[in-house]
Amino acid sequence: MELTALLLSRLQFAFTISFHIIFPSFTIGLAAWLTVLEALHLASGRPAYRVVFDFWLKIFGVVFGLGVVTGVAMGFQFGTNWSELSRMAGPIQGPLISYETFTAFFLEASFFGILLFGRSRVAPWFYLMSTAMVALGTTFSAFWIMVNNSWMQVPVGYVVENGAFVPQDWAKIIFSPVVWVRFPHMLLAAYLTGAFCVAATGAWYLLRRESTAEAQIMLRMGLFLAAVLVPIQIFFGHLTGDYVHDHQPVKFAAIEGRWHDEQPAGEVLIAIPDSTSETNRYEIKIPILGSLIGSLSFDSKEVGLTDFPPQDRPPVAIPFFAFRIMVGCGMIMLLLAWLGSYLSVKGRIERNRPLLWLTFFSFPLPFIAILTGWFTAEVGRQPWTIYGLLRTADAVTPFLTARQATISLVGFGLVYGLIFVFGTYYIYRLLYAGPLGKPALPLAAVTPASRFRSAAGV
């Protein structure tokens, strides 16, 4: 495969956005949870809530900083690697990014300093409000990004003037039904990320017999929140699938691994898609279920990939497998959250060490689900940057050379790798010290499974 400027630019954007998204997806959920913790502390006066809040605030500050640093590159890439996209879609995407600055960044910049340094300098109610404003700012940031991306997925409310897409109706762009399906789906994913990271940390401390009161708060609140949110997330995931089915049928066919029209359509559970022969190898399929999922009908006709020219199809294997990994992570999280919540209500979870270990090792699941969900959405949109309007090959900077793209890709890789190593190490030190700031006992003193600790990253 020839490493062209287009391919290298796509790899660079995929790398930087995939690296960046893990940080805001964590801080959005964590900011909301910190608000709940502060409210509980004010309402109950229980010191453990304050201890847990202060502990997670340190981690939030570090991860928030990592998200800001890694996110800066996103805006520059539109100018350096995707100038044609910027020229043609700038009248719409530029204001949307500005709205993020004026709302999200304004709130975060105004109140984040109070969160870090102002507890002793402001009234308790104002400190709680500041926490809520930071959480609202992170939510606004996600909202405007999803408006931008949803417009690229299903463009509405525009006209073409002088070769550029100009907004004609901002209400249609901002209040598109697609936005109000995809934004809650992303927001819930962020909340679940925070919930499972918090629950996994609580399970770790219980396994180590450290900070027991604080660990129980983390574990139970994280699992209870996940138990409620995962079913809602599954519902919004179904609504997201509906918009893909109606507006991006070729992406839907790729996700389903459906090559030819079927009536009624079966649901491919697992297979190895073969684009050369336009068939699936080792296919396991459930009859009729595909029609039921796609159209809520037992006999609907569902289109296949061969209805579309080869040049208009996405690379099938990536959305096909990424979607199934995402769904698999969701099912595992649902099982853990419900089982853990049930045992918490019964007062038995602290003694169930196998479940504590499973909860501890579950912390990567929401990150994997978010990344594979984005791979499904973005790779499934190919070969379009703006679906149906602008091809990716036509969006890249015309004069960009492969050498220039290689240098920037390597540079980003080195810088982001350095940021990740030092950021992860510092977060690990905070987690290892624990909510009370005391060094935890070596895990080997509790269980022989310590060899997994470094691999798990905590």
Strand order of the largest sheet: 1-2
Contiguous low-pLDDT stretches (5 residues minimum) are 439-458
Largest sheet report: 2 strands, antiparallel
User: What is the CA-atom radius of gyration, in angstroms?
Assistant: 23 Å
Helices and strands, in order, run as HHHHEEHHHHEEHHHHEEHHH
- How far is the first residue's CA from the last residue's CA? 38 Å
Mean pLDDT: 89
Count of discrete alpha- or pi-helical segments spanning 4 or more residues: 15
Query: Structural class given helices, strands, pairing?
Result: mainly alpha
Q: Give the number of domains.
A: 1
Q: How would you characterize the overall build of this protein?
A:
With 458 residues, the chain is mainly α. It has one domain (5-261, 303-453). The protein is built from 15 helices and 6 strands. It has helices at 5-44, 47-80, 83-117, 124-153, 170-174, 179-208, 212-247, 249-256, 289-295, 317-345, 353-360, 364-381, 392-395, 402-433, 453-456; strands spanning 158-161, 164-167, 267-274, 279-286, 384-386, 390-391. The strands form 3 sheets. It has a two-stranded antiparallel ribbon. Strand 1 and strand 2 (164-167) form a beta hairpin. Helix 1 runs antiparallel to helix 12 (364-381) and helix 2 (47-80) packs antiparallel against helix 14 (402-433). The longest helix is centred in the N-terminal third of the chain and has 40 residues, at 5-44. The model is unreliable at 439-458 (pLDDT under 50).
Describe the protein's topology:
Blueprint (H helix, E strand, L loop, with lengths): L4 H40 L2 H34 L2 H35 L6 H30 L4 E4 L2 E4 L2 H5 L4 H30 L3 H36 L1 H8 L10 E8 L4 E8 L2 H7 L21 H29 L7 H8 L3 H18 L2 E3 L3 E2 H4 L6 H32 L19 H4 L2
Antiparallel strand pairs: 1-2, 3-4, 5-6
Helix pairs in contact: 1-2, 1-4, 1-6, 1-12, 1-14, 2-3, 2-7, 2-14, 3-4, 4-6, 6-7, 6-11, 6-12, 7-8, 7-10, 8-10, 8-12, 10-12
